[in-house]
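Pasting as-is:
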Amino acid sequence: AMQSAVLLALQLPGARMERGGRRRGDDDDREREKKEKGRVKRTIIKDWKTRLSYFLQNSSNSAKMKGKKGGKQHTYFRPSPEEAQLWSEAFDELLASKYGLAAFRAFLKSEYCEENIEFWLACEDFKKTKSPQKLTSKAKKIYNDFIEKEAPKEINIDFHTKNMIAQNIQEATHSCFSAAQKRVYSLMENNSYPRFLESEFYQELCKKPPITRVAQAT
């Protein structure tokens, strides 16, 4: 009995140290996990900013080309947190903002489904076309780019809708792609849009910058 008590006394400090070691190990693991999450978040936001600057640059170049003709130029600035928060109220609010649209395109590119917004934009441009000749040529281009089987940016629509479009573009009208555009809009609104609102990048845009105190002269 005496020997057992001595052995137990010798083992207890070691056991406490082992348990303490495990706690310290858990703390280290949590710290490493926290740092890793922070690193991933910074990488995601950096990638987003790279993609976003690409889309904004292209939009700016396009605006400048039009500006040379019409005498107008546009520059896109980071939205205020209040403006960014408006995008969460309705999908149309997001699409109506040049910066928001570019941010959403960058997000879709990260999800490998940017063909949806590109098709929607092509349809918006198509509906504004007045010349019958241009209408026909644009209709065929949209069909070749987005609709036909194994098109480079093929969108996910049903076979019946594809067939209807193939028939309608022979004598193109402004409503050629209406059904397909509604389908793609609904797909983005119900799937990609909610994920965009939950993204790290959008959450960053909605954050108010910290208040900096200005030192007063005495």
